[in-house]
């Protein structure tokens, strides 16, 4: 019995050490990717840091999609103004800022997309594909290795269009990721540069 107990203790210790090593490695994934996805080579590595504390629930009436202001011409990096005095609506919010006229994203489509990400709780822009100078390529939309908010919210976006997505935590990062705290609502503006399939 002692040998079994000692072996189990050693195994648990080794597994714990391995998990802490994996949990502390730097993330090189953009905020839209899930943990198992490959990443574009241009994505910078983030330094390891402690997980921020959960977001406090916002108060006030629910924000309407029109409360989110998106400025900037198509083909250039937009700015997002996240409203104050209201709380995110329940569920995924999808609003076409510019409708687009090209092919439409369907289940299984491939697209090159530019995006800007802001967080609702602090109204800060977190990242943008525009900063790297090239769009983010995504295959098999609907089943892609990205957050559910993208797999659901990109369907129907047409090439040349710009879309606002307000992604609740359960369709983004319920447990948080990197500097994005648990419970955070994500606000994306996404331009469909090219769509195929």
In percent, how helical is the residue content?
Answer: 10-25%
Radius of gyration of CA atoms, rounded to a whole number = 19 Å
Low-confidence stretches: 1-29, 35-48
Q: Beta-strand percentage?
A: 15-25%
Order of helices and strands: HEEEEEEHEE
**Shape designation:** globular
Largest sheet: 6 strands, antiparallel
Tally of alpha and pi helices? 2
- Could you report the average pLDDT, rounded to the nearest whole number? 81
Describe the structure.
The protein has 197 residues and is α+β, with helices and mostly antiparallel strands. Helices cover 14% and strands 24% of the residues. The strands form 2 sheets. Strands 3, 4, 5, 6, 7 and 8 form a 6-stranded antiparallel beta sheet that branches. A two-stranded antiparallel sheet has the order 1-2. 32% of the residues are buried. Residues 1-29 and 35-48 have low confidence and may be disordered.
């Amino acid at each position: 019995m002692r040998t079994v107990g000692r072996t189990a203790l050693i195994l648990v210790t080794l597994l714990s050490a391995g998990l802490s090593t994996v949990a502390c490695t730097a993330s090189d994934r953009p905020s839209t990717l899930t943990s198992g996805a490959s990443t574009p080579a241009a994505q910078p590595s983030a330094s390891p840091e402690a997980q921020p504390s959960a977001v406090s629930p916002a108060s006030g009436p629910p924000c309407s999609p029109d409360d989110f202001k998106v400025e900037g011409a198509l083909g250039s990096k937009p700015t997002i103004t996240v409203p104050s005095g209201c709380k995110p609506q329940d569920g995924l919010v999808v609003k076409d800022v510019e409708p687009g006229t090209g092919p439409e994203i369907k289940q299984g489509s491939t697209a090159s997309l530019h995006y800007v990400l802001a967080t609702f709780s602090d109204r800060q822009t977190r990242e943008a594909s525009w900063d790297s100078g090239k769009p983010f390529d995504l295959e098999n939309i609907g089943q892609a290795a990205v957050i559910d908010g993208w797999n659901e919210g990109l369907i129907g976006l047409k090439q040349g269009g710009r879309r606002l997505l307000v992604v609740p935590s359960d369709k983004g990062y319920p447990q948080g990721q990197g500097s994005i705290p648990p419970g955070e609502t994500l606000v994306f503006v996404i331009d469909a540069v090219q769509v195929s399939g």
